[in-house]
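Could you join me in thinking about how sequence relates to backbone shape in a protein? To get us started, please write out a protein record for me. Would you write everything just below, so we can both look at the same thing?
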Amino acid sequence: MNRRVILTLLVLPFALLMGQEKEALVKDLEQNLMAPCCWSGTVADHGNPEMEARIREMVERDLTRQQVLDTFVAEYGERILATPVAKGFNLMVWVAPVVVFLLGISILVNYQKHKAPALSPAVVAETPGQIPFDDLIEKELKEME
């Protein structure tokens, strides 16, 4: 009887720890899989009970994270993954924002560096007898009459 109590006390913390690890894995999978009911959010966001039950059942059968993900990818395709796989054309999802940001910054810096200084309006001091080419204009006007 004493051995059973001691064995139970030794095994119980490990069982609880395993339960916590499985629960953490279930939550992780729910956050990394899209809900196939509407494809607009993850399973964790939508609370899809069928998907949650399937995920929990697979974890209870001691499947690894990758095995569960592979099972759903085989069934629904890569669109079931909330985060695209960084290979092939999907790599653009990861690279394009960085490239566009750097390009935008370089254009902005280049524009600021080469921007022409603002021209201030020239102050023209006009006095009634100092109009340039006034004599010539008056002469041509008289010839036109």
Observations:
- The helical segments are 2-32, 43-46, 49-60, 65-76, 91-114, 134-144.
